[in-house]
Structure formats: C-alpha cells, structure tokens
Amino acid sequence: MSKDAFLGIDMGATNIRAGIVVDKQLLVCHSIAVSRDGSAQDILEQIYGLVEKFSMYSFNGIGVGVPSVVDEKNGIVYDVQNLPAWKEVHLKELLETRFSTSVFVNNDANCFALGEKHFGKGREVENLVGLSIGSGLGAGLIINGRLYSGKNCGAGEVGMLSYKDGVMEEFCSGQFFEKFYNVNGKKAFQLATIGDEKALDMYTQFGGHLAKALENIIYAYDPDMIIIGGALKNAFPFYQQSMYDGLKNFPYTKTINTLKIHISETENIAVLGAAALVLNSIHKISS
C-alpha cells in the first residue's frame, strides 16, 4: 500500500462512512447506520467494526469528521449532534490505542473545507471558505493553504453571528423554512421542483438572507473562493439569482467580481475531507 494511504471517517447524522484514500483517490468506501439511541460504547464499537473492515490495508493515519465541538489538540468531541450519548468522548486517544496509528479529529465543516482544498474545487486557491448549508450553517476556513480552526475549533462560525431578531443560521439554513413557513427543507425542495410559487418565493427570500451571510464572510476573510456544500446545495438553482442580486450593492466591486462561488461536486467529500486531516498534519510537520 502507498505511503500516502489514509483512512477517513465521516460521522453523519444517520450513517457513519469510512474510506481508504490512496494517492488522493478514494479506493474503497463502507457505510453503516449509526445507533443514534445507543450508548457511547455502542457507537464506539460500531466505529471499531467499521475501521476493522479495512484491516487488509496498511494506512498511515485516521482522520475523523464529527458534527460537534472538538478539542482539536486532544481529539475530544463534545455534545455530538444527533448522538445524545456522546457528551464527551476522547476519540483520538481511544482510536490510537485500538489501532496503533495517528488519529486526527475535527469538526465536519472544517473537514468539508479541507476536503475541497485537497480533493475538490479549491485545489488551485490558497484562501477559501467551505460553507456547509443543511440543518445548520457551518463554515470551514482555509487560509494560506491550511486549515484554520482557531484556538477552540470555533473559527468561521458565521451561523452564530447576530442577524435580525436571531442568528444567521436561522435564516440561512434549513431552519429558515421550518421557522417561518412550518415546512422542512426536503418538502420545500420538492415543492420548488414542481414549480410551486410559494416555495419558489421562499427560496428567493432565502437567497437574500444568504447574501448577507456571504457579505460577512467576505468582510472577515476576503477569500478567493466560497464553496457551498450540505443538503441545500441541491437547491442552489432556486436561490442563486437572489443571492447574487443581494451581493450587487457590496461596496468593493473588484472583490465581488473576482470572488468565485461554487457548488461542491466532489463525491464523498465528507470522507475525503476527514482523510485530509492527516494530509493537513503532514503539511504542518513538513513546514
């Protein structure tokens, strides 16, 4: 097996997926349904079993993306979304002890941005923001070619910025449709797809709110590129125009004209992004 073989694990809301990445190509991927109501140990055993499916491969590190607050240095995850039993799990220590290899753990939005940098549309730029729009609004930052997580792994939390009578996340994620129209994002997408005028209007409003979030991102980070991922990337055609319309009044015309906004198209980007945590660590060591 190549010296550039790594294992990436994506802890999703309903599934845990893992894949072997060899020479920047995803070779094999496996998925299992997560025991959302299981004990902390039950879920750990599921992860152990999934990793053991790759026992025939020799990989040089494991990266794990988790939808939670993460102590990046020590690999401790706190209050994992949709997994009530995972209040505080020393994941790095547990996996390193079990599998005798280096383990790196980070927030899933950070993994998304890192994955796009190493495997997706961000390969040619040094500064990008990976914006994950789903049930919440998360962002990962690549600055000067490297992931920037901040001291407490909280850098880029644009979803928590104050906006109107709440925070950005309530207006720029699936929460918008539920809070203001009492419909979930999946249903809104289905209605818009068949041309329902009310649903299309929802997305027009959504795009206007998202433009405000993008303005904050541009003011704070001035990236070369913003890459949109998450469940709502599929609805991009419905809010694209109002989003761009909302950016027309941005005071720095050159900034808007040179900014690239893309939709993520890389398959299995969450697994690739988790594996990229190992690549990121190697770059830190070699610099």
Q: What this model shows, in words?
A:
The longest helix is centred in the last third of the chain and has 25 residues. This protein is of the alpha/beta class. Helix 3 packs across helix 9 and helix 6 crosses helix 7. It starts with a strand and ends with a helix. Strands 3-2-1-4-8 form a 5-stranded mixed β-sheet, sandwiched between helices. It has a 5-stranded mixed β-sheet with strand order 11-10-9-14-15. It has a 3-stranded antiparallel β-sheet with strand order 5-6-7. The chain is globular and about 55 Å long.
Question: Outline of this structure?
Answer:
It is built from 9 helices and 15 strands. The protein is of the alpha/beta class.
How does the SSE layout of this entry go?
Blueprint: E1 5-11, E2 15-22, E3 25-33, H1 40-52, E4 62-66, E5 69-71, E6 76-78, E7 88-90, H2 91-99, E8 103-107, H3 108-119, E9 128-133, E10 137-143, E11 146-148, E12 162-163, E13 166-167, H4 175-181, H5 185-193, H6 197-221, E14 225-229, H7 236-247, H8 253-258, E15 260-263, H9 269-286
Parallel strand pairs: 1-4, 4-8, 9-14, 14-15
Antiparallel strand pairs: 1-2, 2-3, 5-6, 6-7, 9-10, 10-11, 12-13
Helix pairs in contact: 3-9, 5-6, 6-7
**Strand ordering within the main sheet:** 3-2-1-4-8
Cα radius of gyration in angstroms: 19 Å
Helical fraction: 25-40%
**What oligomeric state do the depicted chains represent?**
single chain
Beta fraction: 25-35%
Write down how many β-strands occur, each being a DSSP E stretch of 2 or more residues.
15
